Amino acid sequence: MNNNLLDNINSPDEEKRIVFVKEDSKDKFDERLIKNFSDLRKPTKYGILGVIIALLFLKAGFWATILILLLFGIGYGYGLYKEGNPKFIRFLMNLFRK
To answer: For each of the chain's 98 residues, which pLDDT tens digit applies?
Structure first.
């Protein structure tokens, strides 16, 4: 057996540190994650979206997935409307004009 290896592990000369994690480090991690995801190119984002939708088709079925996507679209559109997004409001006005 190699005693040098064991001596290195239990060496009293090693400096041991305790690292405290700041509470805001989670927020910084979330910001970095969002920034890194927003830096992705559109084909990569839509590829990830395609994989998620494919998994939904496999797990939930066709009609359940269509319902989820439809309800998501309605909720997203309602959120845009409540924010007062001018492009979405113009789209709705053109959609319901006639």
So the answer is: 455 555 445 555 555 565 555 555 666 777 776 776 667 677 777 888 889 999 988 999 999 999 999 999 899 888 888 888 888 888 888 988 86
Integer Cα distance of 52 and 67 in angstroms: 15
Element (H, E) at 23: none
Q: Is the pTM of this model over 0.85?
A: no
Rounded CA separation 65/48 (Å): 16
Written as one letter, the residue type at 7 is D
SS3 content of the chain, % helix, strand, coil (to 5): 75, 0, 25
Helices 62-83 and 42-60, axial angle in degrees (round to 10): 130
